[in-house]
Structures are given as C-alpha cells and as structure tokens.
Amino acid sequence: MAHQAHAYHMVDPSPWPLTGATAALLMTSGLAIWFHFHSLLLLYLGLTLLLLTMIQWWRDVIREGTFQGHHTPPVQKGLRYGMILFITSEVFFFLGFFWAFYHSSLAPTPELGGCWPPTGINPLDPFEVPLLNTAVLLASGVTVTWAHHSLMEGNRKEAIQALTLTIILGVYFTSLQAMEYHEASFTIADGIYEHILRRH
C-alpha cells in the first residue's frame, strides 16, 4: 500500500461485507424454511458462514490496528463515535418495546379484553426466574467492568478471569431465558402481551 499523507485509514477492499450479507440472507431464508419445512440445513449454513465472517473480519481489524498501525487517534475517535451510535440505536430499539408495553398496558384496547394482562393469560411471577435473570444480567455488567479495568491496568490474568466469568454468566442468562420461554403457558403467537414480553 502506498504511503498516506493523512491520519485516516483508507480501508483495503475486503470480501467480508459480501460474505456477511450472504450469511444474513442464508440465515433469514433458513429461518423461513425451518418454520415451514422443519429443515435446519440452510440456517446452519448461514450461521456457520456468519461465524467464519466474524472471525476473519475481526482478525483483519486487529491486524490493522495493532501490527499495521492504521488506528491513529482520528480513526480511534471515529470507532468510538460508531460504538456510541450503535449503543444509541439499541437504546431506541428497546425504548420502542417499552413504549409498546406501556401503551398496551396503560390503555388496553377492547381486543385485549379491556384489561392487562389480556384475559386468559397467566403472567410469569416477576419474583422468580425474571428476578434471578435480572441479578445475573447485573452481575455480568459488574464482571465486564472488572475486565475493562483490569485491561486498563495491564493485568491480563484478571481480565481473562473476569471475561470468562462474564461469558459463563451470559450462557447462564441465556439458558434461564430459554427455560422460561419453554415453560411459559403462552407463545409469541398468542397476542401483544407475548410479543412484548418475549422481546424484553
């Protein structure tokens, strides 16, 4: 690559956006085929391609930032702004679900039976698995913060321990969610209550 007279990183041509888009197409098509024909082959193919794309793309980003020195201060600033915009989009995504929940629960329509939760729905006890899930989620926030501070202090061993604990808590949280969804007396297809609850 030719020498640059500026501090910005001009990205080299990469196949990873194309393979990522192909993986997304295969995954969504695979989900539709799984729903209608109960075949997981295309979904697994899409997931495999997505994982391979993520590994290769992250490898390239790490290589560019560490070994090639392309992540200059202006580039780092742009990466930070990108992460801030991503987190902001996630906040608004969840805000939409909370808005739908409050709209439906504070002014239930006649289609819902005029009450919340809708007639015939047995809601989950918030002081059982949902409370445990909240505690696990908060604990994972503590461990990832611990990992961040360990990295900032150059303590690699503690950072690895904290990240390992965070991953374990994440797997535990996901398994609790799966158990809760499996044991619930309603499904996502039963109405607005289930749509909102399943996405929180």
TrEMBL record:
PROSITE patterns membership: COX3
Protein location: Mitochondrion inner membrane
Origin: domain of life: Eukaryota
Domain Heme-copper oxidase subunit III family profile: 4-200
Keyword Translocase attributed: yes
Pfam families per the UniProt record, alphabetical: COX3 (PF00510)
Membrane topology: Multi-pass membrane protein
Reaction(s) the record says it catalyses: 4 Fe(II)-[cytochrome c] + O2 + 8 H(+)(in) = 4 Fe(III)-[cytochrome c] + 2 H2O + 4 H(+)(out)
GO cellular component terms given for this protein: mitochondrial inner membrane
Major subcellular location class: mitochondrion
InterPro entries linked to this entry: Cyt_c/ubiquinol_Oxase_su3, Cyt_c_oxase_su3_dom, Cyt_c_oxidase-like_su3, Cyt_c_oxidase_su3-like_sf, Cyt_c_oxidase_su3_a-hlx
MF-aspect GO terms: cytochrome-c oxidase activity
Keywords, comma-separated and alphabetical: Membrane, Mitochondrion, Mitochondrion inner membrane, Translocase, Transmembrane, Transmembrane helix
Record-stated family: Belongs to the cytochrome c oxidase subunit 3 family.
Function: Component of the cytochrome c oxidase, the last enzyme in the mitochondrial electron transport chain which drives oxidative phosphorylation. The respiratory chain contains 3 multisubunit complexes succinate dehydrogenase (complex II, CII), ubiquinol-cytochrome c oxidoreductase (cytochrome b-c1 complex, complex III, CIII) and cytochrome c oxidase (complex IV, CIV), that cooperate to transfer electrons derived from NADH and succinate to molecular oxygen, creating an electrochemical gradient over the inner membrane that drives transmembrane transport and the ATP synthase.
Protein name per Swiss-Prot or TrEMBL: Cytochrome c oxidase subunit 3
Organism per entry: Lamiopsis tephrodes
Name of the gene encoding the protein in the UniProt record: COX3
